[in-house]
Amino acid sequence: MKITALVAHDANAPLVSAPITLRSLQDQDVNIEVLYCGVCHSDLHMARNEWAVSRYPLVPGHEIVGRVVEVGAGVTRFHRNQIVGVGVMVDSCRECHFCQMQEEQYCEQGFTATYNGIDRYTGQSTTGGYAQNIIVDQNFVVSVPDSLPLAGVAPLLCAGVTVWSPLRHFNVKAGDRVGVVGLGGLGHMAVKLASALGAEVTLFTTSPQKGADAYRLGAKQVVISTQSEQMAASQASLDIIIDCVAAAHDLTPYLAALKTNGHLVLVGIPETSHPSPQITPMVFRRLSISGSSIGSIKETQEMLDFCGQHSITSDIELLQGEEIETAFERMLKGDVKYRFVIDMQATQW
Ligand code: NAP
Ligand code: ZN
Ligand code: ZN
Fold first, then answer.
1. What confidence tens digit (pLDDT) does each residue in 205-249 have?
2. Ligand nearest to the Cα of 267, by number
3. What's the CA-to-centroid distance between 130 and ligand 2, angstroms?
4. 327 burial class (0-12, 13-18, 19+ CB within 10 angstroms)?
5. Ligand 1: residues whose CB is within 6 Å?
6. Of 102, 105, 80, nearest to 30 (Cα)?
7. What is the pLDDT, as a whole number, of residue 165?
């Protein structure tokens, strides 16, 4: 199937509108007309080859909400005209321990990424949601609650589930004290979701002007992380911290903010690694640092249903495809409130 997409041709060139070919519809496939696609910081890392794994031409986009326009003969879970979502994965081996446990994001063979992955049918590069359509196996498609405004749902498919998964894995519950570092796409969803789970949220930010928004989104405390007195006042106060920062930084002050037995969960993937934190406080207060990769299809559906029940969506700025480079530049300055979403129907291809 021939469609038009926003394509990065190399790490230094802006994205441009260009024709691409999608795989032909397989029995289990759903053909989705993309309505909205969120702009994740990973799209910027990938378009500009900051992780040194990009293959060009590359079509970013893994926060996809769209309408089913065609289904394969074996599709049972979705029907034409249904509104659905696709996140960061479009396939996995389906056989390994983690796939069997419905934790495909930790597939031992590596999940197939929505873009810049290798399609298990065709051997070609997968292409993402900055496009008119995407064709995805029904097992990697989720249904979207019809009560929610769709543009604000798109960012839930990556930003939402990426912070939901560790909140659930570490069993965050009412009354827990949760820290969130960085008020960007992931961070603002972490504030909303942790507060909706009943936790008391402290936001750490480098941007004092974001404080009022953080309280509006549900935070109970805001700490300006560049102010050492404010950091000192937050010592030993939190059960868990979700670190959503897209750049390398010192982790030691965040370990200090944890209570004994606390967890620092890293979800940001900066271009260069964080410097090693001090080990002694980790040992004497049994602190752990973990990473966390997106979330499973099951968790994605669970999170969407939770958002439907609690009327939670992302705070977004809607743009047209032609404005993507401006969006990337503003994102680099931390100047997004709090997720750009491309309106595919309004885009002039
Ligand atoms: P984003 O919207 O750009 O937000 C990042 C936030 O980090 C900024 O708003 C800023 O918040 C803070 N920050 C502090 N210093 C920074 C600096 N020097 N450069 C950039 N940001 C800085 O990014 P995002 O889309 O939320 O993604 C965050 C990170 O998570 C990215 O590295 C992305 O690739 C990664 N990610 C990981 C997964 C996963 O599966 N683990 C999934 C999706 C994304 P303040 O202004 O409040 O300080
Ligand atoms: Zn993402
Ligand atoms: Zn697997």
1. 999 999 999 999 999 999 999 999 999 999 999 999 999 999 999
2. 1
3. 13
4. buried
5. 40-42, 45, 158-159, 162, 182-187, 205-207, 210, 244-247, 267-270, 292-294, 331, 334, 336
6. 80
7. 98
